[in-house]
Amino acid sequence: MRMTRWTRKVGAILGLLFLLGLIVAPSAHAFDLRQGNQLVIGANEVVEDDLYAAGQSITIDGIVRGDAILAGQQITINGTVEGNLVAAGQTVIIHGTVRDSARIAAQAVLVDSPARIGRDLVTFAYSLETRPGSAIGRDTGIGAYQALLAGSIDRNVRGGMQALGVQGTIGGNVDVRVGGSSANGAPQSAMTLPPGIVIPAVPPGLTIADSAKINGSLTYTGPQSYPVPAQVTPNVTYQATPVSEQPAAGPSSILAENARRLVALAIVGLLLLWLVPGWTRRLADTAEARLWPSLGWGAVAAVAVVAAAIGILIATGFLAAALGASTLFGLMVLVIGWGLVSEVTLVLGVIVFTAYIAQAIASFWGGRFLLQRLQPQWLEHRVVPFLVGLVIFVALTAIPIVGGLIGFVVALLGLGAVWIWAGETLHPAPVAAITVSPSAPADDAIAA
After folding, report:
1. Are the CB atoms for 160 and 152 separated by under 8 Å?
2. Where do the domains of the chain lie?
3. What is the pLDDT of residue 389?
4. What is the pTM of this model?
5. What is the pLDDT of residue 369?
């Protein structure tokens, strides 16, 4: 069912969004950290600092003086958050007040009456509903399957959704991309989530009620045009959804793409032969002499890279959380920065190596292997074997399916050759000692 798929997608991003919220939220001198199954900020309770909370159910009936960064199954704001709200959960319900902006990821988001968000609302959800009597002080950004806007929004609405219903007042412009009417459209009956929130049934496409009011212009993109009452807004612009299917690439475009690959790999290979010729030949020799070990160690290296990337994220998160809990915010920011830099460096390094360096070395090895059997005298010029092998490599990898398999094997060979080279460089094999038997001179003398 569509609901199940959206639940899984939203659940997969909740942890990431929560971590991003921790990173990008404005820093403060202190914060209040809480966790548990049922967390309640009582009606008479005032949290003087930023609130970081995680639990199955989080309810704020009191006042949070700073920001509220929350992660849980059900999050309910009945009181006041004087700063920003960053929330990730299955359901997020706002009955009270958020003085600044709200950034929310959830399966269902409800801005109920008489809720007020002082600045912007940015949400990613299956369903967003703003009810009559609710108010959003500035802009609203929506990434959702469906949205029903029945409250007031002082400024602009932007986003994309399969189904959008407008029943309230929007003070600025509306610029959205909507889906169309189909059998797989929005649910035709209300759905109740476990925590008790009801998801409204919004017809697929764009639905503008007679009671709605858009003070600015309405611009929407979709597979068809929809009726808009004249009193809602006189400025309506409809743009047909671009056709997603693109014509198949012709021979000229395929030739141009492979020509670009040829030039890029030629530049990389020539730089390698100029700057590190010994290292380049060493990797080519390793791949040729130890073909199967290189493939095996390449698979090990690929797994090691994935494990290292995950390990960097986990270590950075735990260390940053420990430093944050100790109020060492300067070190926390430094750790997060170095962790992100290390992660990006690792990922980009592997991509550049497998997509360019490994392919350039494979071209050099293949050209050398071919010329040894056809034109050995050409091997005196190290550039010639590389250029010959490069042309053949690009031609082979341009073949559908076969080219992808060749690229995969070359990537494993390159990673394995580097793995073997690094191991031998860090742990060189001991030089065997030459021993002479004491009896040798005597024997020689006797023989003489």
Report:
1. no
2. 2-240, 251-426
3. 86
4. 0.52
5. 85
**DSSP letter, residue 382:** T
* Model pLDDT, residue 157: 95
45 Cα distance to chain centroid: 38
Residue 47 φ then ψ, to 5°: -95, 115
φ, ψ at 349 (rounded to 5°): -60, -45
In 120-203, beta strands by DSSP E: 121-130, 135-136, 140-149, 152-153, 157-161, 163-166, 169-170, 174-178, 191-192, 198-199
- Tokens in use for 133? 């009597």
Tell me which residue of 135, 162, 134 sits closest to 147, measured CA to CA.
162
Which residues of the chain, if any, have pLDDT below 50? Answer: 1-29, 182-192, 245-247, 432-448
Q: Is the distance from CB of 101 to CB of 84 less than 8 angstroms?
A: yes
How many residues does the structure list for the chain? 448
> Do the beta carbons of residue 215 and residue 235 sit within 8 Å?
no
- CB of 164 within 8 A of CB of 207? yes
Cα-trace Rg, the chain: 32
Instruction: Return the pLDDT at 348.
Output: 86
How many Cβ atoms from other residues are within 10 Å of residue 133's Cβ?
Answer: 15
Cross-strand bridge partners of residue 53 = 34, 70
- Spatial separation of the C-alpha atoms in residues 243 and 239, rounded to whole Å: 12
pLDDT of residue 19: 42
pLDDT averaged over the chain?
Answer: 80
State the Cα angle at 252 between 247 and 257, rounded to 5°: 90
